[in-house]
Amino acid sequence: MASIPPANDEFPGDRLPFIETIQYHRRGSSSPEGASDALPIPPGWNRYVHPNGDVYFRNHQLRLTTPDNIRQPVILQYVMDAREDHLETIADDPNYARLPPDWELTISDISESTAVIGMYSRQAGRAYEWREHEGRLAIKERQHFWSFVAEYPSHYPSLPPGTEEEFVAAVTQAKFRLRNGEVFPFTEQQIDQITTLYTRLKRRHNIPALGWLLGVVMPLESIGSRMNGSLEALMEDLQL
């Protein structure tokens, strides 16, 4: 079981004052909390609330997550069309068959003609993208997976495999790196605050908030690694 020694000082609240806790999805005409909030949720979909108050929807059978308001029939149709189009696009790519069996999609900022589509595997800890100019699926930088963990943390009863251990190791090493004079995005005091919040959320078994914490901290850890030249080459040319 992953663990971090408790920090010396507590700080109030369940937020990190040095990391802005934003809402990922602004409420607009297609947002879940808009005027059509009274409409029923379509069959097969469930509503989830992010620790920051964001609302998103998830269809477990389709492995599809969206913050757009699928209570509105037209928005639901846009989301389903975008999913179908994306799957048709990648169907002939040999890399599609190599995806982990737990791959899932996110679709956001939907309209009649555009959508932002993400593809992820919790088991592999990876994010994927379709490269139109190359005509193939490729692995994205790890920070995109962490962003997914932070943005949609509320629909699973556990954290992605290995992520908690990775987080604990990174935070534990951060102090040593600072004391060795390395450049890092966090101060030692801020690392103590991260540790304190992690310990508090873990004690409460607050999986959504833990997912958010891991997701927002780990990309910054990667920035620190790049600052010191220790991050492996970016995965632009990796095959699946």
Automatic annotation (TrEMBL):
SUPFAM superfamilies: WW domain
Transmembrane segments annotated in the record for this chain: none
Ranges where the WW domain occurs: 39-72
Protein name: WW domain-containing protein
Lineage: Eukaryota, Fungi, Dikarya, Basidiomycota, Agaricomycotina
